[in-house]
Design a protein that fits this description.
122 residues, mainly alpha, two-stranded antiparallel ribbon, 5 helices, 7% strand
């Protein structure tokens, strides 16, 4: 995990994103325990309440669950839910604007698909 303390993005959101990214990348597998609030706060010198606030975002998304007396664990299906969410965000943030820009440049769908294929070949 790496945190940008000078970023405009709050640390608790960075904590949530880092956990989600680790699950998506396979760093934390389904059913696996993740580091505790205390471990993360000590290792990265972050207030435990800030870490907990970030973890609670991930809990609310049903990607990790609290097991009383045991810690936090990655839920079943978490990886797939994150990947699906990231695909939807990719579509909304990149594909829609790409198609809009292509239309403004008079690039046809088939021309755009060819350009995308060329991009994959690089």
């Amino acid at each position: 995990m790496q945190f940008q303390f000078n970023s405009s993005e709050p640390i608790y959101r960075q904590v949530a994103e880092q956990i989600e990214d680790a699950i998506a990348a396979g760093g934390f597998e389904e059913g696996q325990q993740i580091p505790s609030t205390t471990e993360i706060s000590k290792e990265f010198h972050i207030n435990p309440a800030t870490v907990l606030k970030g973890m609670n975002i991930v809990v609310a998304k049903n990607l990790i669950e609290k097991r009383r007396g045991l810690g936090m664990f990655v839920t079943d299906g978490a990886h797939q839910r994150i990947v699906s969410e990231k695909k939807n965000l990719f579509f909304e943030n990149f594909v829609v604007s790409l198609v809009k820009e292509a239309r403004s440049l008079d690039i046809s769908e088939s021309e755009l698909l060819e350009l995308i294929k060329r991009g994959y070949d690089k």
